[in-house]
Structures are given as C-alpha cells and as structure tokens.
Amino acid sequence: MGFIDGIKLRAKNDIKTIVLPESDDRRTLEAASKILTEGISKIVLIGNEEEIAKKSEGLDISKATIIDPNNTDKLQSYVDLLVEIRKSKGMTPEQAKDLLTKDYLYFGVTMVKAGDADGMVSGAVHSTADTLRPSLQILKTAPNTKLVSAFFVIVVPNCEFGDEGTFIFSDSGLVQNPNSEELAAIAGSSAKSFETLVGKEAIVAMLSHSTKGSASHPDVDKVVEATRIAKELYPNIKLDGEFQLDAAIVPSVGSSKAPGSEIAGKANVLIFPDLDAGNIGYKLAQRLAKAEAYGPITQGIAKPVNDLSRGCSADDIVGVIAITAVQAASK
Q1: Is residue 204 within 8 Å of residue 187, measured between CB atoms?
Q2: What does CATH list as the number for 3-140+304-330?
Q3: Entry pTM
C-alpha cells in the first residue's frame, strides 16, 4: 500500500471534519467531491450556497456542509470568541464581525478553534502568509512547541532510500533562515510528524554542504550547533549531522564519509539548513524524480491547518486533506 493510500485508510477509520474556505476554486471543489465520494472525511465549504452550486456544476458535493458566514446562527458566537482571543490587540465586536464575514480563512480557523471542525486546508489561491496568519493569531502554537514550521512528505517511486522512498523534507515552506535553535526545534517536530504520518521510526539527518567537518564555514557551524542542541533536547530521536545529502541517504556513501555514524546512509527525515535549500530540494525531487509531494504541511500549530502550493492539483488537495484528518486524529 502506498503512503497516501495508507493515510486515506487511517482517515476513514477515524472520520474528522475538515473545513475548506476556498470555495471559489474549482480544484478545491473537485477535491471535496473526491473526499466525500471516498468517505475520507466530512467537509465544510465556506461561501454562498448559490455561488458554490455554480462553481461545482458537474460535481457531487451533496454531502458537504455549506456555511455562509453572512447567514449562519454561529456568527455571533464566533464574533464573541474572536473578540475574547484578540482583545489584548484591541479587537472590537464590529471588527471581528467584519473580519469573519469578509475573510473566509478567519472564519474557517475560528470554526476549528470553536471545535466545529477538526482542521482546515487552504492555499490553492491564498499565500502561505494569508493561510497561517489567522492560524497563529487564533489557534496559536501547540504546547511545548517553540515555533511553527512546514514540511513536505516526499514519496519517490522505485526508490530504495529513506523508508521505501518516503521522506520528510523540512523546513520546505515557512521558516526562511532558521538559526541553530530553530533548526533543532524543526528537527524535533519533523521526527514526530514522520512517526505520526508514516508510522515508522524517524531517522533524522541535519543537512549541509559538509559531512562531519569536510568543509569549514559559518553555515556549516550553524548546522553543527543545531545537531548538538537537537541531540541534547531529543535524546530519544535517532539524529545526526552534519551530512551532505548523499551521505545522509545512501548507505555506501554514508559508511565512507561518516563511518562512525549510526544515522549516515539511513535517513528518512531531512532537515535543510534554510528555506532556499528545502524548497529547491523538494521541487527537484518532485519534478526530476517524479516524486509525489504532499504539502507544505504545517507542524507546531495547536490544531492542524495546512497550506497548499498554488500550483496544486485537485489530487494534491485530496492528499493534504487526508493528512490533515490524520493529524487531527493524532491530537
């Protein structure tokens, strides 16, 4: 069974409710139809019912719940909740009502906060910043989490590396230039995410252009220090570095370049030194190795809200919805 098929099966075994605020996007509606047909999760679409009916012509979304923020008896309770959460920032009831009725992402996240949905997926037509801003303002970070980061699940066909070709690439979507402490935190969160989603033990490699001192540069020093911090913070995680990519995932190269490491050549969680490297890396795997790329999946938010690439397909959205449902179940 492939990775995403396993995720879908797990989602079906513990049905969650996922809210989709981008109801004006055809791909989102196609994904909703597929999710509902396969019985992967319940779906809430936010928007005007007549407009959604026009946009979804030819699709079966009859099992979806459609909520119009301008015509719902939940609005006042959501206004009250948002005012309570944001009162220290001067939020007034009038401002809250205006935000909830005009910005569907804020409405969706408030639904999740209120417990009326288990997670949200957005980003097909919105930027990462637009998707995550209400999440961080309303849901905030999970307990014992230092920062929110993002990863891709990469599934490479016919690949003997990683976990039968399955990897997490992190951070590939959010934290621009993490310092050593942030890199260590990303490593800890990513190991947990791998074990939650893949169901196997995480083996974490801290990536660099250097392997075990083969190069000298402040960029290398950052990764070396991050590795030290991560080992101290997460002693139960299999983690090592700094590694070049081939030393991290190819057993023969790992044993040659880092003979004293139990991690070298075996990694399935790859921690990139910055967002440039992570973003380039996942797109190389996706385009050249024909890998499936699911994400960016966020980690560290109190409840799951996940972003999408604006170049995503309907099937990509289906995969992220299923992953979000599994994340919600794990909470």
Answers
A1: yes
A2: 3.40.50.10950
A3: 0.87
